[in-house]
Amino acid sequence: MSAPEIVQAAGGYGLVGLGVGLLAVAALGLIRFPDAYSRLSAVTKAATLGLCLTLLGVLVLEPSWANAVKVLLAVALQFVTSPVGGFALGRAAYRSGSPLSPGSSYDELGGRHSAQDGGAGGDDPSRL
Amino acid sequence: MIVVDVALVVLALALLPAVWRIAVGPSDADRALSADHVFFVFLAVAGLLSVRLQDSVFLDVVLVGTLVGFLATITLARLVDRGPS
């Protein structure tokens, strides 16, 4: 193997390892965290960055223009859509009355949101 | 290539906590976010399979999967919102 190939393999496998490690940490967070909101934080953040790093590693390992277009488009879409999806899930969790962990110090909404909208109800189409 | 094999095994193991959380999860929100996690892991597996099998068709799967995954997440969020708590 020539020097550029070694650098390519090391970079690609390093990115893949980092990304898969982050996904594994997100899985660990699913087990260990006490309530739905902290689990959501673990999954959304770690899995977004983990998936993007994994895909970039795949691109480094298999470089071509066609792959670059597909992978970079997928990474960009993931970075844009995943936080929105996480936000929507967290909002739905709070509105459906998912309990906070007993260790939480603050509940800034104070149950106001679910009381005002009747918990899981609310057919107002302007609300997600 | 051994790195990719190990990564695929680690990803397979990372699915088990999500299955467990879907089974026991105290609220529907836990089940929804576990499904989200399963989808992320699936996309990573598809990306790694394109390296393992030397077939770039899997990258198309990843590209379509990111779009469908977002729609699935939003739909699950609405279901959690409207469903019985």
Structure explained in plain terms:
The complex is a heterodimer of chains A (128) and B (85). With 128 residues, chain A is mainly α. Chain A contains four helices and no strands. In chain A, helix 1 runs antiparallel to helix 2 and helix 2 packs antiparallel against helix 3. Chain A is elongated. Chain A starts with a helix and ends in a 12-residue tail after the last helix. By secondary structure, chain B is mainly α. Helices cover 87% and strands 0% of the residues of chain B. Chain B is built from three helices and no strands. Chain B is flat, with a radius of gyration of 15 Å. At the A-B interface, helix 1, helix 2 and helix 3 of A face helix 1, helix 2 and helix 3 of B.
Helix/strand layout:
The complex is a heterodimer of chains A (128) and B (85).
Chain A: H1 3-32, H2 36-61, H3 65-95, H4 112-116
Helix pairs in contact in A: 1-2, 2-3
Chain B: H1 2-24, H2 28-52, H3 57-82
Summarize this structure briefly.
The complex is a heterodimer of chains A (128) and B (85). By secondary structure, chain A is mostly helical.
Notable traits:
heterodimer, A: 128 residues, mainly alpha, 4 helices, elongated, disordered C terminus, B: mainly alpha, 3 helices
Give the averaged pLDDT of chain B, no decimals: 90
- How far do the termini of chain A sit from each other? 54 Å
Strand content of chain A: under 5%
Order of helices and strands of chain B: HHH
Count the E strands of chain B.
0
